[in-house]
Each structure stands twice: as C-alpha cells, then as structure tokens.
Write a structure and sequence with these properties.
Elements lengths: L1 E4 L5 E6 L15 E6 L7 E5 L8 E6 L3 E7 L18 E6 L6 E6 L6 E2 L7 E6 L5 E6 L6 E6 L6 E2 L7 E6 L5 E9 L1 E8 L6 E2 L7 E6 L5 E6 L6 E6 L6 E2 L11 E6 L5 E6 L6 E6 L6 E2 L7 E6 L5 E6 L6 E6 L6 E2 L7 E6 L9
Antiparallel strand pairs: 1-4, 2-3, 3-6, 4-5, 5-6, 7-8, 7-30, 8-9, 10-11, 11-12, 12-13, 14-15, 15-16, 16-17, 18-19, 19-20, 20-21, 22-23, 23-24, 24-25, 26-27, 27-28, 28-29
C-alpha cells in the first residue's frame, strides 16, 4: 500500500510507494507510479496497491476513498489511459483581476482552468456576485463615471446599470430567492446597506449610521443580512433582519483601534459566517457561528488572507491570499485544511465568488 498527500489537478503526477513500518518497501523494492488525473480532485490523499513493477501491471489508484483511476508502472506512460472529462452545470468561480491593466471580472472552473474575462469595458469592474441560478452576475463598475451596480448574463452580455445614482454603489449580493440584491451605497453621505429588487426598482435603505456599513451577505433563508460596520470605532461584523431591524454585533474587538473584521460570508446552511480579521497583525480567514460564538481561525499565514466565499455545498471556502507575493485565489476545505492556489498568475487576483452547479464525474 502506498500513499501520498497533496492537492491534485488535471495532468500527470508521479507517486512513489511509501515504505512499510520496518523501513522496507513492499517486496523490498521502491515502486514509482505515473498517474493521469482526469478530473479535479479537491482533497489530497491518494492510495494505491496491487502493482508489480517487473511486469508493468495496470493498477487501481483509489482517490480519497470514492474514485478510482487506472495507472501503470513508470516508465510505461504510453499505457496510461487518458479519459476525457465531461461537465454539466459545473461549479465556477468569478473573481477580480488586474491582469489586463485594469480591474476586470474573470471566470474560471473551480480547478483554475479556463480563466476568461467576463467584462470587456476599459473601466474597472469589481465585486462579482452570482445569481442563485448562476444565469446572471452582479458587479460594480465605474464605466459611467462613478461606481454603479450592474447585472449581466453569465457570459458577460447584456450588462445593465441597475442603480443609476451619482454616488458610489458597491458590493452587490443576491438574495437566496434571486428576487432582491443588497448593496452598499454612499448616496446619503456615509456608506449604508441598501436593498432593491433584482431589476433595480424599489431601492431602499436598511441602515442609517455614519460609521460606514459595507460587505452585505444574506443568510440562507433570506431572513437576515450580515455586514461589516465601523459604527463602534473599527470594522466589526453585525447582522440584522432583511428589513434592517434587530442590528446585532457578532464580533467584539477587545482593544479599541486594533484590528478590523470585514467581508462576512454566510454559509449555505445558514449556520456559520466566514470573515477576514486582522486581530493577530495580518488578515486571516475566520469562521464563527451565525450568532457570533465559536470564532475560529482557519488560515495561519504571515501574508494577508481575505474575502472568503463558501462553495455551494459548504464543504470548501475560496479566498484571496498574498502568501505568494501577489494576491492569488485559493481554495481550502471548510475546516482550513488543504489550501490550494488555483489561479497561479503574476497579477493580482481577488474577490472569489462561487456559482451554483454540479460537476459530473468523468465516465
């Protein structure tokens, strides 16, 4: 039995058999396998057995206890099968990048493949948010001179200005039923949380505080919104009803002026909120119960980790990290393990947001 631990994407990898507890290899020899991975594997344990290096046997590699692929002993790569993956409604990530000299919204598969531009305007476009059916994307853009909320089709066509206000409107987020969009606006002086119908009508202010309210996120049932606010001196995470009532502070920074909690993201089951917090000197990704209890740090890196986003099934969190010298999009398990860079680009990649979709395993 062999085992290797690391994240795997498409491509060919080489694995070496691990020794037995007595330090020897199975049948007293080292075995090297070459594996073609035909689909993105989001967890990172690969085990294999039943190989015979003398006869170039075809073996079965079981990936994470639920999928298997055929492998052969290296150096016989011509025998490695190369199945073609097929996808229907695959989960995708939207993110923001400056790789075209100005901030644009890009899309990619959850494994980092097929990174393509959604917005083609020369103006900046940021803060993407998928509609619940993944058919549309909301974002903010200054293409008309000031930041407004736009909605386009998922391929970037048909972009429509929803807010049409001379002041800054940013950070859109769809309600779970797709009927409303919450956002932050400075139209009344300081930033406050607003909500509107998905077609831009009935724009209504929910908060009224001079301390700057930003980064709204909906609960799974659509009954509450979490957001970041500076109303108590530094940014902290709050929640309120979808009508702006029952405002409750969820994070409590013990020393005034030290640390900011920002970018809350409600989990798909409504039980947890992920957020960024620089309480330990740099931004890290945290999670807490929806009532603010059981706050737990998921990342532990000397560089900033920011803007978390839950996968539709709640098993993973995407975020942006500067640990490689520039911001890249990473994906990790919801418990903080197996952190994987999926953009791998020298530009700045930020603000990941998941779409809804199901990946079909290759045949």
């Amino acid at each position: 039995m062999g085992q290797i631990d690391f994240p795997v994407k498409y491509g060919t990898i080489r694995l070496r058999q691990l020794p037995r507890p007595d330090g020897k290899y199975r049948e007293d020899r080292s075995v090297t396998l070459e594996v073609t991975v035909d689909a993105y594997i989001s967890t990172s344990i690969i085990r294999w057995s039943g190989v015979d290096s003398a006869n170039n046997e075809v073996a079965t590699v079981t990936m994470y206890g639920k999928r298997s692929v055929q492998v052969v002993i290296f150096p016989a790569p011509d025998q490695i099968p190369t199945p073609t993956p097929s996808y229907a409604g695959q989960t995708r990530l939207a993110f923001v990048t400056d790789r075209e000299s100005t901030w644009k919204v890009y899309l990619m598969q959850m494994d980092g493949l097929n990174q393509t531009s959604l917005t083609s305007e020369d103006a900046e476009s940021q803060n993407p948010a998928w509609s619940p059916d993944a058919g549309k994307i909301a974002f903010d853009s200054n293409r008309n001179g000031n930041r407004e909320i736009y909605v386009s089709n998922e391929d970037g066509t048909g972009a429509t200005n929803l807010t049409k206000n001379p002041n800054s409107d940013t950070w859109p987020v769809w309600s779970p039923d797709g009927e409303r969009i919450a956002f932050s606006s400075r139209r009344d002086g300081s930033g406050n949380i607003y909500v509107m119908n998905a077609d831009g009508t009935e724009q209504t202010r929910l908060t009224d505080d001079p301390g700057e309210d930003i980064f709204p996120t909906w609960s799974a049932d659509g009954n509450r919104l979490a957001f970041a606010s500076r109303r108590d001196g530094q940014y902290e995470i709050y929640s309120m009803t979808a009508f702006g009532n029952d405002v409750t502070r969820l994070t409590i920074i013990q020393v005034a002026g030290t640390g900011n909690a920002l970018a809350p993201a409600w989990s798909p089951d409504g039980k947890m909120i992920a957020f960024q917090w620089d309480k330990d000197g740099n931004n890290e990704i945290y999670v807490m119960d929806a009532d603010g209890n059981n706050q737990k740090r998921l990342t532990a890196n000397t560089a900033d980790d920011i803007t978390p986003s839950w996968s539709p099934d709640g098993s993973k969190i995407a975020f942006a990290s500067r640990r490689d010298g520039n911001y890249e999009i990473y994906i990790m398990r919801a418990n903080g393990s197996e952190q994987l860079n999926v953009t791998n680009d020298p530009s700045q990649d930020l603000w990941p947001r998941w779409s809804i979709g199901d990946m079909i395993e290759p045949n």
